[in-house]
Amino acid sequence: MPNPTTKKHIYRINSHVGVAGTGVTQASIIELWAYAKNHPQYPYTIANEMISAELGSTIRLGVPPHGLFRDSIPPNNTYFASIDYNLDRSKLPPADIDKTVTDIPFDASGLLLFDVLIANPDRHPGNLAVDFSATPPRMHVFDHSHALFGHEPHNGVARLTTLDGRLGMSGQSGTGQHRHCLLDKITNPEHFHEWMSRIEAIPDFFIREVCHEQVGHGINEAEARKAEQFLISRKASIRSLISSHKAEFTGIQDWGLLP
Description:
- The chain has a three-stranded antiparallel sheet, with helices on one face. It has a two-stranded antiparallel sheet with strand order 1-2.
- The chain is α+β, with helices and mostly antiparallel strands.
- Helix content is about 30%, strand content about 10%.
- The longest helix is centred in the last third of the chain and has 16 residues, at about 220-235.
- It contains eight helices and seven strands; from the N terminus they run βββαββααββααααα.
- It has one domain.
């Protein structure tokens, strides 16, 4: 059975500022802390973050609530923002990767396979948070600005083309950046089947729409089409992609019945 940690996320209200209407449920207006991104030197940031967050939420990873937000004053800049996941406003330390794999192997496996889906070369202990004080521990998944199109301006289509059929997270040429912090740590693929099934079940229409909704937010129509094609093909072939790169999962010695 899946580990329930993916369904235990609660987020912090900063303050109650008023009452919304007079309904019997007494809805209130609240203020929330959120982290916003829109870096002019990295135009793919919003699209990378939004597409990745939507896909991660769909398969039930611990992705904080998120969306596109716009300044209320000129020049009315648009940002990707995700809700602050710290209930007590303390800064969680970089994740203890060994403890993460040991204590929440279901979530760790899901994150690893999700990052294969989005070709994320930038997963390290600093952009993965696990609250081990919670019971069960809670994983918070964030920062996907270097996934998919990558961080180099005007190179998004080329990057996706280069990474077709590759893990995109092993730190080799074409992938760039980091070797995934979980790639050598997971020793048992027992949860892979569940996560591969979730990835395969993402509807094509969902991928198509979430990619094209980012047009005008750092990507154009051609880039949206490429992301759509890349992700639809990648989720459909996730099993063969993992199978053909078993050697990269250096901690796994016995694959059992998995392909």
